[in-house]
Write a structure and sequence with these properties.
Helices cover 72% and strands 4% of the residues. The protein is built from ten helices and four strands; from the N terminus they run αααββαααααββαα.
């Protein structure tokens, strides 16, 4: 992944952005809102994580979303528009199909937004934001978020080492299972020891004590202030549109919602809000191109 302008923003800007997009993505059921969220999440994930990572995520996310839609069809039979009857005698309705696809789109969008969160909101940023307010919680979040990638890297390291020593079975199901259990036992021991060492290290440094200062690389610049203002204005406008029914939509008993010029303005604000990292990166690219052309 190449350098992205959104990664260089202040942690408060990153946090506010993800709080807004995740909240709206989980509560908006309007089809156009779901489409905006899903498309923007794909675009941002491709820029932040790379196209290869998005394709790998899509390989398991697409079947999961389809499964969620099918489960809704199997257990939800509400709706006025009956298309057919299942072998069990329950009706298959157009509204249940629409709601199933809406739930699948919401699930896919939220997962993609969280993949962007994992890239942007590093443990250092969380420590910077919450280290002084809730030091114990910030340390716990930091350790939790970095546990999975460190666990995977250590697992590969231990497996490779045991293979090099000829202690990892490559044939036979029982032998492979024993080797995997041994490696897992090693990983559990390593995880517990690492957690104890980290806690002792932070305690010896006086972490969480009153009056303790901490070095930080993050500075609140003019660009960060403008971005916070932009996010606050867009978020407030979208939230107001939500409260006033500008993006209201229902699926039962019949699919019905609103689509007015005011709704279009709310959708536009939501679209611009979700694409803030993309717009910021494009602005940064144009700035650098202008500087390079003058040099």
């Amino acid at each position: 992944m190449k350098h992205h302008a959104f990664l260089a923003c202040h942690p408060a800007v990153n946090l506010l952005y993800f709080v807004l997009v995740l909240t709206f993505s989980m509560f908006f059921l309007h089809p156009l809102c779901l489409a905006v969220s899903l498309c923007a999440a794909l675009w941002c994930a491709a820029q932040l994580n790379g196209g290869a990572a998005v394709r790998c995520t899509a390989l398991w996310l697409a079947p999961t979303a389809i499964l969620a839609a099918l489960v809704n069809l199997a257990f939800n039979h509400e709706g006025a528009t009956i298309l057919a009857y299942l072998p069990s005698g329950n009706p298959l309705t157009l509204e249940s199909i629409a709601y199933g696809f809406a739930a699948a789109a919401m699930l896919a969008a939220v997962v993609l937004w969280f993949s962007c969160w994992n890239t942007v909101m590093t443990s250092d940023k969380l420590m910077h934001l919450f280290g002084r307010v809730v030091p114990a919680l910030s340390l716990l979040l930091s350790m939790t978020l970095r546990f999975v990638p460190r666990f995977q890297a250590k697992l590969r390291e231990v497996t490779a080492a045991r293979r090099g020593m000829g202690l990892y079975a490559e044939k036979g199901r029982l032998q492979k299972l024993r080797s995997a259990v041994t490696v897992f036992s090693v990983m559990v021991t390593w995880s517990l020891e690492n957690a104890v060492e980290t806690a002792d290290s932070m305690k010896s440094r006086g972490y969480g004590l009153p009056g303790r200062t901490a070095f930080s690389l993050y500075r609140f610049s003019r660009r960060d202030r403008l971005l916070l203002l932009w996010l606050a204005l867009c978020g407030a406008y979208v939230a107001a549109g939500w409260a006033l029914g500008g993006v209201k939509w229902r699926y039962y008993p019949t699919a019905r919602g609103v689509l007015t010029p005011y709704s279009a303005s709310v959708l536009l604000a939501y679209f611009l809000l979700c694409l803030t990292p993309v717009l910021l990166q494009r602005k940064e690219a144009r700035t650098w191109s202008s500087i390079a052309s003058k040099a």
